[in-house]
Amino acid sequence: MNNSFITIINAIIDMFKNEGFLKDIDNSTNMPLKLTHAFLGAVTNENGMENRGATGILSSESNSHLWGDIAKFYLNGVSLIKEEIEQRVNGDDDFLTRLESLAHFLSEGQCSISEQMAVEKLWSLFFPEGCSILPDKSSAEQALRDKRRVKITTLNPDTVTDPASEILFTSNVLITVPPECVKIENLNLSNPVKEHLARIMKEEQLYWFDHPMEMGADTENSEFIYGLKGFDDALNFERERGNLPCGSNPLMLMSVSVTHGGLHNIAVPYLEGLLKETNCPDNFDLCLFTEKDTQEMVRDVLEPAAEGFLNRNASDLMLIFGVDGEYGRHYSFLKAVALFWNTLIDERVKATFKIDLDQVFPQDELVRGTGKSAFEHLKTGLWGATGIDSQGAPVELGMIAGALVNNDDIIKGLFTPDVTYPSGALKPDEMIFFSRLPQALSTEAEMMTRYNEGSPINGMEECIERIHVTGGTTGILVEDLKRHRPFTPSFIGRAEDQVYIISTLFNRPERLAYLHEAGLIMRHDKESFARAEVMNTQVGKLIGDYIRVLNFSTLSKFIPGNRDRVKRLMDPYTGCFISQIPLTVVYLRLAFKAISLAHEGKINWASELICSGAKRLSAAIDFCLRKDNGLKGQYEKERKAWRLYYDTMSALDDSISTQNPLGLTLREKARNIVNRCMVKKRGR
């Protein structure tokens, strides 16, 4: 292992010892923590007795039935970190300079490693995107805002004029089983569903989501009902304001994703049962799509069209077109389905706009703070405009992005950032990676930007493009779906909204970009659904965040224009997940976080993080490093499949225009599928 690197990690571990983080861990009976301590010893003392002892523990436990996977994960980590650091040192003089400078600074002991000066130097190596923000936040914000400026050349000549009929509103409901501590017999569910649940809860979980809706939760605590009522109220406001003609009902298309395979057959009946207890929806129509429904769309419509019009096998469309799986899969579906809708269901649809179910439009505050309602924001001529970015390159603002304000903060004003700058002492893992800092910066500099008369960025001659977006409050025009063919790979489990734009980078002379629509703000009511921290959910989110670093860092190598060009555009927040040393960062974050949790008395959390992390990260690392059938191969396969989807939709559009019998037959099949997915209200 590189001596300078060893000096740096030893300095951090010495801080752990001095502050009591490692107390009793070495002699602990908790094997996951003991193996984590051994891993750090093996990384930092390559030639010493301590290293041989640490490596010996890992080697001896690698054959253990209980702890073998963790030990092998850590042994592999020692080799991977050594190889990664050596590659960077040998191939990047700047990295070597920063490495040696940091080691020299720490060896001199000029200040505590937890002080800001030392932290900035640590970040210069592990997390350079965080450097120089805290000392001068206003300058950092201005620099980022200048980087995101776009000079408008042409406004969209075909803007959205009637959101009710021209925008396909979408959302996603994520369903999981009740917590293990809940007695199924006490849930307000039918007996057959309870019997199903008892079996399903014994299944292995397939997917992890940030805050899935637990089946059997009280209706008043249902995010599904809450989000629909919020949307219904917003539409009622638009109707009273004259933006929603009498008798005109917008459509909400919702994907239904599940964490366990057994939930497939009972998810939609369960949701329909919840709706029967309410008067919602009243102002819109609702369409629920499960994995079964999307596969039917592929089998009965897309595959015959690809074979009949293009003479191409379309079986790979099953891989990409659906709603179950990691976040990337349903996110891509909820965007791409707008083209399907425009072609086969309703040609009036010009765009799609996604909202999350814990977000609502605060219409009174929107009008008071911006002079516009939600629908009036969506009519902007900037959505679909063309312009020149800060580097002189052409962009198409074919996507739109709003922002969020937390429910508890809206009393302070509509433009109150939902992510604020951190304060207080850093936790050990945050000395290696601290995405909250650039996230707060981009929230202030991008999301909170207002277009004011007299300012260069006035929303007429200039505007802001967005890189940092959230899953809700985003939309895309159908014409830009056709032109740029974006998608999020199905293996992406976090930040699917930000990966979506990466797939389009540098494919065309004009880059597809998100318009920042100043003042299009939704109220984030996450506190309304705040549950006590559930260990499995929180640990799953942490591991998903580590995998995000691996996926982003690997994926960026395969995007046209090379990794550095991609990262320059995406920095500081989205780009911080594109690391020069992703394996090193991920292993250290996991180890330091586990030690930190144990120090806080959360031993079970620490053990679960290590056990689950070893399993999921081993698979993710193998996926990223594998030469054949790994991330690169999967990405290329999915990109090819998405091209086929867009080619197929183009062929279907042509066939319908010419009244081709096959095209008309497939359109009828598509409409039958959609009709079956419509939620029928009582009395209609």
Explain the overall architecture.
This protein has 25 helices and 12 strands. It has 684 residues and is α/β, with parallel strands linked by helices. α11 (267-276) links the parallel β4 and β5. The mean pLDDT is 89.
Quick tags:
684 residues, alpha/beta, 5-stranded mixed barrel, globular
Given the helix and strand composition, which structural class is it?
alpha/beta
- The radius of gyration computed from the alpha-carbon positions, rounded to a whole number of angstroms, is 26 Å
Average per-residue pLDDT, rounded, comes to 89
Strand order of the largest sheet: 1-8-9-12-10
Query: What is the helical fraction, as a range of percent?
Result: 40-55%
Low-confidence sequence ranges:
none
Number of helices: 25
Major sheet details: 5 strands, mixed, barrel
Q: How far from one another are the termini?
A: 71 Å
Annotation, overall tally of beta strands = 12
- The dominant shape is globular
Name the beta content range: 5-15%
Summarize the structure.
With 684 residues, the chain is α/β, with parallel strands linked by helices. It contains 25 helices and 12 strands.
Reconstruct the topology from this structure.
Layout: H1 3-18, H2 31-44, H3 49-61, H4 68-91, H5 93-108, H6 116-126, H7 137-147, E1 149-154, H8 163-166, E2 167-176, H9 191-200, E3 213-214, H10 223-241, E4 251-258, H11 267-276, E5 285-289, H12 291-310, H13 317-320, H14 327-344, E6 351-354, E7 359-360, H15 363-370, H16 374-378, E8 386-389, E9 394-406, H17 436-447, E10 462-466, E11 474-477, H18 478-484, H19 496-502, E12 511-524, H20 535-555, H21 563-570, H22 582-599, H23 603-625, H24 631-657, H25 661-677
Parallel strand pairs: 2-3, 2-4, 2-6, 4-5, 9-12
Antiparallel strand pairs: 1-8, 1-10, 6-11, 7-12, 8-9, 9-11, 10-12
Helix pairs in contact: 1-5, 2-3, 2-4, 2-22, 2-23, 3-4, 4-5, 4-23, 5-6, 7-17, 12-24, 12-25, 14-18, 14-19, 14-24, 20-22, 20-23, 22-23, 24-25
